[in-house]
Design goal:
Blueprint lengths: L6 H10 L36 E7 L6 H20 L8 E7 L4 H14 L3 E3 L4 H14 L2 E4 L13 E3 L4 H14 L5 E7 L3 H14 L5 E8 L8 H9 L4 E4 L3 H14 L4 E4 L21 E4 L8 H14 L5 H20 L7 H12 L4 E3 L2 E5 L5 E2 L3 E6 L2 E4 L2
Parallel strand pairs: 1-2, 1-3, 3-4, 4-5, 6-7, 6-8, 8-9, 9-10
Antiparallel strand pairs: 10-14, 11-12, 12-13, 14-15
Helix pairs in contact: 1-5, 2-10, 3-4, 5-6, 10-11
Length: about 400
């Protein structure tokens, strides 16, 4: 069945549920445990000659965005190992392999082709929106099931075979405005956003629209582009002059770190609120994490949560990869377990064709309910998740739940 283009529906759906999405760009520390020299995951091999599931993942494992890509690929690997240890999916083990796309659309397609040559049957990824959209053109042609943990642009799920774990960009903007208004965090809000990315501009647009219903005033909206993302003093001065008491940052953490540093130099004292793109800022090299103290963001996952599933996951992830997992890792972990649940409901085996596996997953993803790290999740026929977000605040260099 042809999936509806839900640009008109997504905001309303998001308001009824919640948020979250992600894609990124960064120069940062990343998890290197289990990686080859090229940055690709070592993967999971399965001994023997019998049929096995083959799940692939794609993300930026090196260079810009590596903090996101490694989180996605590492968490998928962890989930695969756990599932194999518990008996696999419908009695069959999973082989797993990931590829580095370096946050580049063409390289992401090349990574997909490499995984397809390996025999991939199901794709987890890519990690970022533009790469997800580029690769979805190929998975659609091949009738291969694709689930992106963190591709948040509306068009990521324009095809029937593509689902996502995060929320679309419009949901992030709407829910951020709703959270700020409901919790009365500010009366006057400024915005700094990247008009050259669909991620940032999409969130900004829905934030502005929902702000009309939330009892605060947007006093200044300042844009930048990929070519002007090193000096934000003009944007910060304009917002300061407008009297904002909170600045909304629907951007990636590299730019956010620069903004926080320059704001401190200017003596600008305001509240800061962002979306999933801010996740990863605390792990950056050469950034004073004290500048992020008090920064708030909406997220479906908080590593300090005390439920059994989260504590078990955080412990296992730290043991394996030597870092604390972020929401991208949690979304990816949930993606693999969603695949498992849908395949088990369908009763499908890895001996089925790519087309048969795709159909089984498309039909049954809408029938399952996953109690995951990022909440209890259900999916609609458009590939969109229904779950609740959490808000966190950075305190003493860690994310602390606000809810």
């Amino acid at each position: 069945m042809k999936k509806k283009q839900f640009a008109g529906l997504v905001l309303a759906a998001a308001m009824a549920t919640s948020l979250f999405a992600g894609c990124g760009s960064s120069d940062n520390k990343s998890s290197e445990a289990g990686k080859s020299a090229s940055g690709s995951n070592a993967g999971v091999e399965v001994a023997g000659d019998g049929p096995v599931w083959k799940i692939g993942a794609i993300g930026p494992l090196t260079g810009a965005g590596a903090n996101y890509g490694n989180a996605v690929c590492d968490a998928a690997e962890l989930a695969v190992k756990e599932i194999n240890a518990a008996g696999g999916i419908n009695g069959y083990q999973i082989a797993y392999k990931s590829e580095d796309d370096e946050l580049d659309n063409e390289k992401s397609v090349n990574a997909y082709n490499a995984l397809k040559d390996w025999g991939m049957q199901i794709l987890v990824g890519p990690t970022t929106s533009d790469c997800t959209i580029a690769v979805s053109e190929k998975t659609k042609e091949d009738n291969m099931f694709q689930i992106t943990p963190s591709g948040s642009a509306v068009d990521c799920t324009k095809y029937d075979n593509v689902f996502r774990v995060c929320f679309a960009d419009p949901a992030q903007g709407a829910k951020s405005a709703e959270y700020i208004g409901t919790h009365k965090l500010a009366a006057k809000v400024g915005i700094i956003y990247d008009s050259s990315t669909t991620y940032s501009s999409g969130i900004e647009q829905s934030f502005v629209e929902e702000a009309k219903n939330q009892g605060f005033e947007i006093v200044s909206a300042q844009a930048f582009t990929a070519d002007t993302k090193t000096d934000f003093t003009a944007q910060l001065q304009a917002i300061k002059d407008a009297g904002a008491d909170l600045i909304f940052l629907p951007i990636y953490y590299t730019e956010a770190a620069t903004i926080l540093t320059q704001a401190s130099t200017m003596g600008l004292s305001v509240k800061w609120f962002g979306c999933d793109g801010l996740d990863g800022m605390l792990d950056m090299d050469n950034f004073d994490a004290q500048l992020a103290e008090g920064v708030m963001l909406l997220t479906p996952f908080a590593a300090d949560a005390t439920d059994d599933l989260t504590t078990k996951f955080v412990s296992a992830y730290k043991d394996a990869y030597k870092v604390t997992p972020n929401q991208f890792a949690a979304d990816s972990y949930d993606a693999v377990y969603a695949i498992k649940a849908a395949l088990e409901k369908a009763g499908t085996t890895p001996e089925a064709s790519i087309e048969e596996i795709n159909k089984a997953l498309m039909d049954n993803m809408t029938q399952i309910s996953l109690d995951g790290l990022t909440g209890t999740i259900k999916w609609n026929q458009n590939g969109e998740p229904d779950k609740n977000p959490k808000a966190v605040e950075i305190k003493n260099g860690a994310y602390v739940s606000m809810d």
